[in-house]
Amino acid sequence: MSSSDVMVSMHHKALHLLQEDANKIEKLIEVQMENLTTRKCPLYEEVLDTQMFGFSREVDFAVRAGLIPVAAGKDLLSRLERNLAQLYEALNPKG
Amino acid sequence: MSSSDVMVSMHHKALHLLQEDANKIEKLIEVQMENLTTRKCPLYEEVLDTQMFGFSREVDFAVRAGLIPVAAGKDLLSRLERNLAQLYEALNPKG
Fold first, then answer.
1. A15, A21, B67, B72: which could join B14 in a potential S-S bond, CB 3.0 to 4.6 Å?
2. What start and end residues bound the annotated signal peptide (chains A, B) (predicted)?
């Protein structure tokens, strides 16, 4: 493998891992969305916030390590943040 | 640069970044150790726990991305955990 092949392969791997982790959080959000009308788990917000914090640290590290571009990191995070915001809106509807 | 040079350079960079982050937490622990007798900040433990969690996610990601060996990740974390344990012991001395 050439050096640029190695880089491309490491970047792919990093992005794939981050996407997997993002999917796990996504799944947590979906589950809570589906259970909106049945029951609320009071710890859900806390768990999601913690997971989001951990994920943002992973993404930040990947960017600093030169594994993914800044924009790719921002995309991953803002997508999750939008979904989270929708969940919170659904959990706490305004009057 | 050869492909193995690229790998070595990425591994160095990753380890260096993690070491920097570990040093920041180390610093937080030191500051609290120095202030043991003067004043306790009740949020300190929470802040340190959060920082440790974020750091463990970074380390875990670096290992999974093939940037650092499992053993190096464990070393980074266990060193900090030992220092944290010392701080907590000093904060909560047994009768």
1. B67
2. none
Domain boundaries in chain B?
3-91
Question: What ipTM does this complex have?
Answer: 0.85
What are the C-alpha distances in Å from A94 to residues A9, A74, B10, B51, B53? 47, 29, 49, 34, 33
Q: Do A65 and B66 touch (CB under 8 A)?
A: no
Q: What is the pLDDT of residues B3-53, one digit of tens each?
A: 888 888 999 999 999 999 999 999 999 888 887 765 666 778 888 999 999
Q: Which residues of B touch A58 (CB under 8 A)?
A: 57-58, 60-61
Amino acid, res. A26: E
Distance CA A92, CA A81 (A): 16
Contact residues on chain B for A65, CB-CB shorter than 8 A:
10, 13-14, 17, 62, 65, 67
